Amino acid sequence: MNGPDVPSTGGAPAGSARRFADGHPLAGAPGVARVTGGVFPPEGVLAGDGAIAAMAGEQVVTVAEVDRRLRLLRSGPLAARLPRPESAEGRNLRRWLVQVMVAEVLAEQEAARLGLAPEPVGPPERLPPPEPLPQPGPCPPSARPARPGVADDSADDSADGAAVAPRAVLTLAGALRTGGVAAAVLAASPAARAVCRALSVGREPSEDEVRDYYRRNLDRFTTPETRWVVPFGPVRRGQIAGPIEDAVFAAREGETVGPVEGPGGPWTLMVERIEAARREPYAAVRERIRAELAKENGERAFARWLDARHADSVVLTPGHEHPADPAQPDADHRH
How many angstroms separate the CA atoms of 22 and 91, rounded? Predict the structure, then answer.
């Protein structure tokens, strides 16, 4: 369900029919007895104000709910980036949104079944920015410059001082790791994150896995050599090029080099200070790596759970299939 090339497999396996007990919202609907592959035939089930987009267990996701959610999406800050509604890509956006809404319902059902309480949600989790170049001169660790309009990061986000979990952020890495639907639901749904935490229990990485990750990703924990150069300021390898870079990184601290041919003519430069490359030791980052790997293991477990639950309990109506389902007319991945 989550991968880009995985067709929707909700409901009964291909070649079998999905039937519903008396009293079910779809019991007796035209064509329901002929359901195959988890997708309804078009007769009857799409008509009227109560038209059904999907069933997640006993819960209905209506076409009206999908329309309302899509209007919110198209009125949001990224509306200009979305495909036109009448295009194949626009119709597939709608299909994808249905998968997210169904996954949210499944997560809420599971959280209720397990008696899980979603965490209080605070402001969005800040993505770690690229490490900035250090500025010349000492900067005491406690002297953090205030940013206009931004509260101190250490300030308590809750009125009563209670711990508040940051709202998750949808990232490309998360989408590649778990599939876009699972990543989107984990970012948007506190219930999904509660289920994910429950599935994470017992999936902590071993010491060997943590140490191996450190060895394979030394670049993440290494700060390259930095040189303070007049007139450039702090620079690292790869930020300047050609003879100027060669001269700067061959010079000693306090040495003036040049004239060196460069853009616009000859350059004379002085290397004021050199800060050697440094690497965080394993002991300093061990717990950070362990927490990151445990989180990723839990997200993968959630994605596997979501796929299995979707296959067992979800039925989709025509027009709301997974975008990668090759049976739907707008599928763009065919062999």
Answer: 33
The model carries a pTM of: 0.65
pLDDT tens by residue, the chain, 335 residues: 554 333 333 333 333 234 344 444 554 444 333 333 454 444 444 444 569 999 998 899 999 999 999 999 899 898 999 999 889 899 989 999 999 999 999 999 999 999 987 666 555 544 444 455 545 443 333 333 333 333 344 344 444 444 445 556 767 777 777 788 998 989 889 999 999 999 988 888 999 999 999 999 999 999 999 999 999 999 999 888 889 999 999 999 999 998 988 888 899 999 999 999 999 999 999 999 999 999 999 999 999 999 999 999 999 998 898 888 888 888 876 55
Indicate the residue type of 108.
E
Give me 186's structure tokens: 């984990």
Residue with tokens 């090029």: 241
**What totals of helices (H) and strands (E) does the chain contain, helices first?**
8, 11
Taking CA 301 as the corner, what is the angle to CA 95 and CA 98, rounded to the nearest 5 degrees? 10
Closest CA relative to residue 134, chosen from 248, 197, 226: 226
Largest CA distance in the chain: 89
3-state class of 277 per DSSP?
coil
Do 92 and 333 touch, CB atoms closer than 8 A? no
- Tally the residues of the chain: 335
Contact 320, 94 (CB under 8 A): yes
Bridging pattern class, strands 278-279 and 222-223: antiparallel
Give the count of alpha carbons within 13 A of 189, CB side only: 27
Dihedral sign computed on CA atoms, order 97, 99, 100, 101: positive
Sign of CA dihedral 40, 46, 49, 53: positive
Q: How far apart are CA 278 and CA 20, in angstroms?
A: 64
How many of the other CB atoms lie within 10 Å of CB of 112? 10
Closest CA to 174 of 108, 127, 123, 121: 127
